[in-house]
Amino acid sequence: MKKEKFYLISIVILFLTLIGSCRGFTSSPMPGADGVLPADLPQGKSCGDGVCDGPENADTCPADCQEPVPSAGIESSSEEAAISDIPPLYFFYAIHVHGSKEYLPYRDPGMTEVDPVVAENMLAAIEGIAGVLEKYGARATWEFMAPTVQGLVEYQGGPVIFERLQAAGHEIGVHGHRLEAVPAAAVALQEIAGIDPATSSGFLVQVPVSGEAQAQSAMSLVMRATVESGLSVGTVNFTPGGEMNNLSSVCGDQFGVGNDMYLETGNLMHPWHPDYLNEDVCADFPGGKMTLIDHVPLTAFILPGEDAPPDVLGSQHFDQLQVYFDNALGYLAENQSERLAAWGFVTHIIEYAVGSQAENPPEESALEALDGFLSHVDAYHRQGLVIYATASEIAEAVNSGN
Ligand SMILES: [Zn+2]
Question: Which band of pLDDT confidence, cut at 50, 70 and 90, is reported for residue 63?
Answer without folding.
Answer: low
